[in-house]
Design goal:
The chain has 533 residues and is an alpha+beta fold. 31% of the residues lie in helices and 20% in strands. The protein contains 14 helices and 13 strands.
Length: 533
Amino acid sequence: MNHSRTSSAQSIPATPPPRYHWADALSVTAYRLDQKPTLNNYMGEIAEQATKIGPTVFPILFAALVSRSLKTIARFQVERKKGQKLGGIQFLELLVSSKSVFATVESKVSLRRISVIGTLLTLIWALSPLGGQASLRLFYHNVPYNVSEDEVKYLPTGRMNSTQYGWNVLRSDVLDNEQYLPLTILTVIYSSALLAPAAIKSSRRDIWNNVKIPRREVMFGQHAQPDGWIFVENVTITEDFVTLTGIPHTSLATPPNATARFAVEYEYTDFQCTNYSTGEPEDPSFPSLIGYPWVKSNGSTITSWDGKTLDLIKKSAFIGFHDIEAMSSHSGSHQPSVKATMTVAMRNTGRIIYSEPWDLKNCSMEQVFLQARIACKDDRCAVDAIRPSDWNITARASERLPIEISQDYSASNTVIYFPRSLVDADRRTDLTVDRFVRGADVLLDSCVLPVLKDVEDSKFSKMMSIALNTYLQIGQDPKFALISGLIPARDPIWKTSGPYNSGFSLSAGLPFYYMNATATIQTPEEIFRRDDR
């Protein structure tokens, strides 16, 4: 009998159970990992593994801790002879037999008694599975964005750069000045853009991976965001772009998976071509039909006001301007655009006699100013949105920023040298700009294209605008930035010249003006977050 009591007493622990620190350590770890990066985080990897085994380990530790604690309480009550006050033998039986949720419920059923102590014991044991699941929710992953800024420099387009658009820009005889692009090189680059595959010409980047700018027509009928941006991510047609070449800009030092966005100002000349007619080179009035700068024609050649000539036998197309005074503006003017008229003269592809009439179309010209938002990720950039710009109004309000075109030089040189980029007609091939503006995506294709009068005005207007804007943009790129790219924005060489409207002069080290933009860089970073729910 004494032996039985001794054995029973020894089975009941006499001291409180040891405290298990696993759960505490995991809680402290979750607190310390809060807002810490997950990348290369050794402590975080261990903690995540611990939370995964929590539903298995926690119930085991909980059962060992609680069951021994209840036995200790039962022994304490027996020794102090208070068991009878708390329910007697049934109370002690509940404490000793409570080793799990099922055992606790079984004891209550076998004793046929529902008590407050029994209910509390059931609730305590119910915490075991809840605690195991709670370990899975100690922390979670979150992906916030770190926002930073970087400087971007890019080349102005069209007539935004009125200084560099001056009379020497497109001259073929300027070979010893770094500020100007020799015509021979210009023609090679221009031909490369024209001869690019159709998939490249209709893509959002040019053959050298520069960002191409959409035309304003792609905005029409689209819903604008509150800040005015209109998404244009689905532009995939050649004539929906301003040029065949993109805008050169400095590269951005972005981390992997980062997204950078910056806005650029750009200008291009839009055409609305109508009024088909014909003209004969032998007619004395032929130069007046074509317009500035042509003043005289003898049937085989046509001569400009400053004595330059074009051989009409060898050329398949050329241009002239009307209302040339409309192309010049003054610094005090706040008009949003400048209009003039350009006449396009093209040899009928079915004629080989130079004295036959030429096809003519008049094109109303308009300066268009837009903003484009460029998005870059993993060194690949593209325009994702555009909106109207008031850059020209702001520019003209400044004393130092007139938008003006020299009617004597800029227009004259464009008219004189642009046709030289065309293949001579006497080679009996249609590998020329006129094939492009007539609608040929593949210029080496031997298919017969329609004569000028049969080309839709809307298509011809867009293609002619692309052809001329591309030519002029290349002509303002004396360092071949289209091909080689621009040097990094933080390079000291940028200090040798200034941004447009800075009052700086051009230098040999940086022979062009540039524009500034600020890029916003968003870098995703996965971090640990403590779950306080």
